[in-house]
Every structure is written in C-alpha cells, then in structure tokens.
Amino acid sequence: MFFDRPETGEIAILVHLTIDSESERDDPVEFEELALSAGVMPVDLITGSRRQPAPNYFVGSGKLEEIQAAVRAHKAELVLFNHALSPSQERNLEKQLQCRVLDRTGLILDIFAQRARSHEGKLQVELAQLQHLSTRLKRGWTHLDRQKGGIGLRGAGEKQLELDQRLIGQRMKAIHKSLGKVRAQREQGRRSRRRADVPTVSLVGYTNAGKSTLFNTLTQAGTYAADQLFATLDSTLRRIDLPNFGNAIVADTVGFISHLPHQLVEAFRATLEETAEANLLLHVVDAANEDHQHLMDEVNSVLLEIEADSVPQLQVFNKIDLIKGFEPRLDRDGEGRPKRVWVSAKTGAGIELLIAAVSELLAGSLVCETVRLEPHQARLRSQLYEKEFIEQEMVDEHGAYVLTLRLPKSEFSRLQQQGVTVVTNSEPASTSPSEWPESRSETAPAAAGSVG
C-alpha cells in the first residue's frame, strides 16, 4: 500500500513561509534537499512571511493565488509545504489547488517509506504512516453512509470513515505486536552482550553527517552510504576489535533532522533503544557545515526525547577534507578525557585517533600490571594477545610466562578471579592526564590511512 511509487519524479511546487510566531525555523535549502531525496522534481520555490499561520489554508489569500498560478503554469502534481499542516488545512488546500498536498511530516515519512529495506524497517515506517493517516481520513465519504441496515439487520451501523478507522486500528495493533517481538529480540541480544561484557558504541548525528561512511571505515561493513538525506534507515551492528581493550559492537543508526516527526520517534523506538542502551555515543558532526552547532542542538534534543541524553558522548567532527589545510586532531576536556576528534571518514585521516579515543573512554582508567602465567594457562595468554593487552613478555627459569599488561581495571579483576599470579602492584597506565600535551589536543599525520 505505502511502498508502491511512480518510476518518474513528480513535478512539485515547494512552499516555505517565515512565521514570526515560530521560535525555531526550518531551512529552505534543507527542505529542497528533502524534496530531492524523495525523488520529486521541484520546479518552483514560493516563499513569504506571516505573523502566524492562517487557520483555513495556512497561507493568506494572496499567497494561495500565487501557488495556484504556479501549479497551473508548471502543471504540477504535488505541492510540498515546509511546515506541519493540520488535516483540515491539507484538505482545504487540495480542494483549492486541485492536486495533492503534503506537509513536512508527510514528506519525511515518504522518504522513510522509500528507504525501508528490512522487514522491521518497513513495519516501523508503516506504523508511522498509519498514525499520520489516521487523522487525515475524512475525505468526503458520502456513499455507504451506513454499511449495515435492512430487515433484520437494523441498528447503528458503521460509516465508511468509522470502518477505515477500525481497519487502521487493527493493522496498527498487529504491527505493535510484531515490533514487540523485535524489541524482545533486541533486548535478548543486548543481554547476551552484557553477559559477555561486550560494550556497544552507537553512531548518532544529523542526517547526511557521514555516519555510514564512518561506520564502513571503522568496520569494513560495506553498508550503503550516499550524499543524501536519510541514506541509512535500517540499524546495522558490526563487531570491531579495539587496541588495549578488546571487542566492541558498533551500531549505525538512522539520522536525525529538525522537527523529526513524533510518529517516527515512536515507531522507531525499538531501533532507537540501541542508542539509549549504548555504552558510548559517537556524535558525528559535519565539520564543513557552518551551522553545525544548531544541528548538534537538534540531535541532542532528540537524544533527550528518547532518554539517551545521559549516555557518554564523543564528538566526531567529520569531513575535515572539505576544510582547506585542516589537520586531524584529538581534543580533551579539562580533566584530560577525550572530548572531540577531527577526522575524515572519506579519506581515513584521523581514524587512528578516533579508535584510540574510543578505547580510552570504554576502558576508563587503565592499569599496568606484570603477571605470571603457568604453562597450562597458555590459552589465557593467547586470549590476552588477541585483545592486545600484552606489552612485553618473557619466560622465567621455570618455564612460566611473565607478562607486562596494559588493560582496563575490569579486565584485570577478571584475571585475578581466574587465579592469575600478580608480580607487581597496580600502577596507572601511561595515559595519565599529566603526560598529555599542555594544549589538551593531539594531532595525527594528515595522510593517515583508513583503518579496517
């Protein structure tokens, strides 16, 4: 029903008004990118300003006539509004313009419908569309005024509108049930990772900030990445090995946008729970975008809505290859913790700094220890090598392995529980804040290669 689309782009008129009563205003350039991402052909952008929206048509009578003239001149099939329209405003506009009318929410839902690939993604999009459609059913049903009637069947009966509402309600109930199973499966996977002590690192950020490209650079996953809004819709998980730490799971998630429709937030709650339950968020930012601070604020507002604002964040300023003469670097806060990394996911510059910062934040405080493993503990020695915890090794006169380790405190505690003999007392690892540069930033060579 919702996923059949015409093969050719539809001719569309874009409408963007500046409303004085609105504290936050959407960007008309982003609106045009949304239209292009939906596959339409924008032929005209009509702008204007009002103190507040008109109750009947959102726009005034003069602007309505201007839109009508543009529709006739270009033979447009669709009019897109960069605003949230009420159901009555949408109906009135369609009646006057004699073509389909979509608001910003409907446009974003349409893009999501096109990009949904997995069964879960399609269910989530369909749920969001049904929630949006349920308020827009009244279209002038005059036939089938009462479905039930006649001799022996007299009663209140059902109007066509009521029947549609009931059918939509039944379908939404079925989708909720299916998504409940998906949520249970995701929670089971998270419990398994917690038992195995495998942390999750979730990529978040404004749409088209480069999350999928960064995800592919980190994991060599080969997921779809493109220079367009909402190129990624379905959540993807991949394992990554971090130096001086071990295994972690990296999650690529859907991008956020200004005024993200509430229906999408609710429908994608099962997917967004991966973000809320993560151990660390990589907040990917388009460093080349002059308005990046505003976009970061929009992302943080969505994180607050999905109750993920308390998860530790590492800011990843991406696309430094678009900034002339900019070198990758790692910035730290006043306490010496990694705060911001400047990278290029496209060229791979600065990726090694990012990986080191993620390892440091996940590990917390590292310790250096010297331990002794007996010959029968060779398997444990192999596991320590796999996690890259071993800094130095020697064999004593009894054939035992004497290992100098650099590892998280939690990992060292686990070793002690396995009966490992400690040779020296605990000492801080060589990542103490006093040994970092005074500038609180670290730079990397500009020609850094990509890391798998």
Explain this structure.
This protein has helices spanning 28-37, 61-74, 87-97, 104-115, 119-133, 160-195, 211-219, 262-267, 269-276, 292-305, 351-363, 378-386, 409-417, and strands at 11-19, 41-50, 78-81, 100-102, 200-205, 236-242, 246-252, 280-286, 313-318, 329-332, 338-342, 366-373, 390-395, 401-408, 421-422, 427-428, 441-443. Helix content is 37%, strand content 21%. Strand 3 (78-81), helix 3 (87-97) and strand 4 (100-102) form a beta-alpha-beta unit. The protein has three domains: 11-102, 3-Layer(aba) Sandwich (Rossmann fold), CATH 3.40.50; 197-362, Rossmann fold (3-Layer(aba) Sandwich); 366-428, Alpha-Beta Plaits (2-Layer Sandwich). The protein is of the alpha/beta class and 452 residues long. The chain is built from 13 helices and 17 strands. The two termini are 41 Å apart. The chain has an eight-stranded mixed beta sheet, with helices on both faces. Strands 12, 13, 14, 15 and 16 form a five-stranded antiparallel beta sheet that branches. The chain has a four-stranded parallel beta sheet with strand order 2-1-3-4, sandwiched between helices. Helix 1 (28-37) runs parallel beside helix 4 (104-115), helix 4 runs antiparallel to helix 5 and helix 5 (119-133) runs antiparallel to helix 6.
